[in-house]
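We both want to read discrete structure tokens more fluently, so let's practise on a single case. Would you write everything just below, so we can both look at the same thing?
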Amino acid sequence: MKAPLTRAEVANNNTEDSLWCIVDHRVYDLTDFIDAHPGGSVVLTQVAGTDATTAFYNLHRHEVLDKYSDLCIGVLDGETPEVVEQKPGELSLVPYAEPSWLRKQEKSPYYGESHKALQKAIREFTDLYITPEAQEKEKDGTYISQGLIDRMAETNILAMRLGPGKHLYGKELLGGVVKGEEFDYFHDLIIAQETVRANARGFQDGNMAGMVISLTAVRQWLNDEELKERVTQECLSGKKKICLAITEAFAGSDVAGIRTTAEKTADGRHYIINGTKKWITNGMFCDYFVTGCKTAKGFSVVLIERCDGVDTKPIKTSYSTAAATAYVQFENVKVPVRQLLGREDNGFTVIMSNFNHE
């Protein structure tokens, strides 16, 4: 337990050789931190020996104090910190900061006990594991760690992000807070709302967003059942990654204007894919590409596995490169026809049906 300190003691430590200040009734010794302060030493010398609470919160989020908690040497005698520190998983006490159905005095016909249990569990998971990595990756632009992917796979968070369906049946979801057979679109909404609390836009897309908008199409439209189940298990286990490759530089998301072609071989057993895709989320680290192509009489969607002839290059966008946004080039890529989603020339139906959840 750190000894209580007085404001007089703080006032006496007002030089570069011994620099203390107060933030929210806590005393911080910044003597050894002065040279490392991102804003320079002058900012700290200006508040040396004083209560710097207002100055601090004008410039920083409260989480900065957590990062440098080792600099705190005690609490002022007879005083109590006023800022409420939320523990992982806790609800905010700020009015209207939470959905109304989470308030004790409110009741909803749509949310039951399993929804509340899931909300609490996924918020705690996000606070403990997703947010710290998200903030780090958002800044340095590197991709999501395999460790976090494995955690989400083990708890079936990856599977829940696809929405309700048979892929959840029999699975233990976040320790059993909800049964896979009972998982509905309100559970799905909770997963989406809680995971974005990491507050890192680029990383949020880098956190398997490509899988969320592409594996659903594979699940619904891939005709080869054995291949469908293999790809599903590979992706939901985190061993392989998948993304949606529709957008092109010349056509944007206008599927009618795409130029990537899928031409059948003479024996009719394979497609030869040629073309490019742009702004493909997660494309840099993906193993599978759910790809929109021009076929003989229209538009088709084909599952392409990364192989020789598939090349990806990073694209810098207005948010973090943690999203792994890619320019993808397909050059004479040979793909078995069993990897067609739906019917040939009927890809528009495949993509439009996928947009509901996407």
In short: The chain has a mean pLDDT of 94. The two ends are 51 Å apart (CA to CA). The longest strand covers residues 270-280. Residues 113-140 form the longest helix (28 residues).
